């Protein structure tokens, strides 16, 4: 019995899931503390700042991460040094460019006295500091994912998320600092993880001298498509926040309210992110070996099993939506409870559709068709932005914004299967049969 439990604990999907759940738990506590420490307007500004930061981080690391994971999977130690050094140098250059853009825009806005949401101003001013502090640990994530070392990934992430959570607990009970101080502490705790990764030679800083132009070119040629895909994927959710922030009718308060059901949705999506992280290297390895049948087999099993797992979670969330919203947001959002409950119930439909959408994208990347995945996500992003503009500026409705999320996800599923049927003759009915086969052989998979 103990031996079986050890095998289950070592299983890579569960290791990835535990890593993400641990980090997400700390993030959830931090989110709940922030909703109680900042009023709606200040909390909305924080959400806009951190959403913009997350979005631009995807731009920075999207250029190298997916391609680096692909090349690092199975690479020897010499090749790993070259790849890590190349990714670090590329990310340093991107950081310098983004710093120049942010501070130039900040100076222009101040000089011309242009009025924008304060969340945008905070981003332009503070993001370069945050980007420098999280450079090393983000670069190290490529190595961890390629090695399937999710335990190390969890420890590095908890080092900053956990410290930030600890600070917010102290802030709640004793310090009572404001938004600007909270931003500076967030920058500082990211730097702790970054320095640790540099000292352990996980990030590629000491391997800069091993970087080669040829490898950098290969990373960028693949990465330009995966970066576009990641940016577009991020825009699928973050464009909601950006566009709400531009509205004089909804503004920072609208962002704060919408963030509650959106955070709950992100929490439900954690298992999917974990399984996608383990599926991508496995599918890529099979595809690089020329085993297309094995690649599709992994795809069918993941989509079927995860959709099956998501159903009871989505159903329970739909039923207890009101209690979940109130638990996360606190009494500050009691007056908006009916609206936020309805938005979250719309999001539970979106959660059920996510596995089909996500894994079609993972499979397209695995078979070296990132361009098609980019086209798929660009179409979804375009649809979402159009729907968001209509929802915010015409209907002035947060519910309409949530409905748009379901619509663009259905579009993504259609396009994903359309491309995969053309490229690898994917068959939808195989999802059920492979899922049943996986369940029957569960003991073999765990051992």
From TrEMBL:
Pfam families: Polysacc_synt. Coiled coil: none annotated. InterPro entries: Poly_Biosynth_Transport, Polysacc_synth. It is found in: Cell membrane. Keywords: Cell membrane, Membrane, Transmembrane, Transmembrane helix. The keyword Zinc does not apply. The chain crosses the membrane at residues 14-34, 46-63, 90-114, 156-175, 181-199, 299-321, 333-353, 374-393, 399-420. Its main location: membrane. It is a multi-pass membrane protein. The keyword Transmembrane helix applies. This is Oligosaccharide flippase family protein. It comes from Flagellimonas spongiicola.
